[in-house]
Amino acid sequence: MLYFIIAMEQTITITPKWQIHIPLKIREELGLTKPMTAKIRVEREKMVITPVKSSLLAFAGKFKDQIQKKKIDLDKIRDKIDYSQL
To answer: Are 52 and 44 in contact (CB under 8 A)?
Structure first.
């Protein structure tokens, strides 16, 4: 049985600070929806970048709607400080 790999290819620019931009079509093909970490390696004179899914980063911002934010009047901030432990 023969298998053919159809690779999506696009030309990118490497900036003077050695940064690259991953084009939208490539991000969509990989299912990348938000910034993340990646591993990079050289393989047969090619640069291979592999997304790394971090279990810790997966929770980033997930519970932000459940946090109750209390507004503190900065003019009365000294009233909120517990001075008994100082």
So the answer is: no
Q: Is the pTM of this model over 0.85?
A: no
What distances in angstroms separate CA 24 from CA 12, 33, 39, 57, 61, one per listed residue? 12, 10, 19, 22, 23
pLDDT in tens, 2-41: 655 667 788 889 999 999 999 999 888 888 888 888 899 9
Question: How far is Cα 38 from Cα 52, in angstroms, rounded to an integer?
Answer: 5
Residues 38 and 20 sit within 8 Å (Cβ to Cβ): no
31 Rama sector, left if φ>0, alpha if ψ -120 to 50, beta otherwise:
left
